[in-house]
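Schema walk-through. Below, the input block comes first and the output block second. Nothing else is stored per chain. Lengths vary across the set, and this one has 137 residues.
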Amino acid sequence: MNKELISTIISSKYNEAHRLLESQLAAIKERKLVEMKKMIAAKDYIKEDTEDESFLSEARIRIIKIRIRKGKIQRRKKVSTIKGYTFRQGKLQRMSPTERRHRRIGQRRGKIKRRAKRARIQMKRARSLRKRHALGL
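--- output ---
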C-alpha cells in the first residue's frame, strides 16, 4: 500500500494519492479504535477488581493474577495473605507440614528450571514487546 502511494505521488496523480492516503488513515483509525475499546473495557474490569481488593484488604484473601483477554476476564486467582494457609474450595485452609515442604522443594526446582530457560524467555518477551510496539501499544 505504501509503495503504491509513493508511486502515485511520483507520477503526479495527486487525487488518487489523496484517496489512498485517506483509506490508509481510515484503516489505522479503525484499528486504533478497536484497541482503545479493549483498553477501556479492561480498565472497567480492573476498577471493579480494585474495589473488591479494598474490601479484601481487611480480609485474609487477596485477588492476584487477573488476566484479561479480548476485554473479558480469563483468569482471576485468589490467594491467602496469611503464611501457612492456602485457599481451597472458597475457604482458607491450613497447609500440612508435608505440603509446605513439597511446595518449598518445588519452588527450588522451579527456580533452577527458570534460570535454565531464562534466555529463551527473554527472547520471546522481547519479540512480543517489539510486536506490541509495532502495533502502537
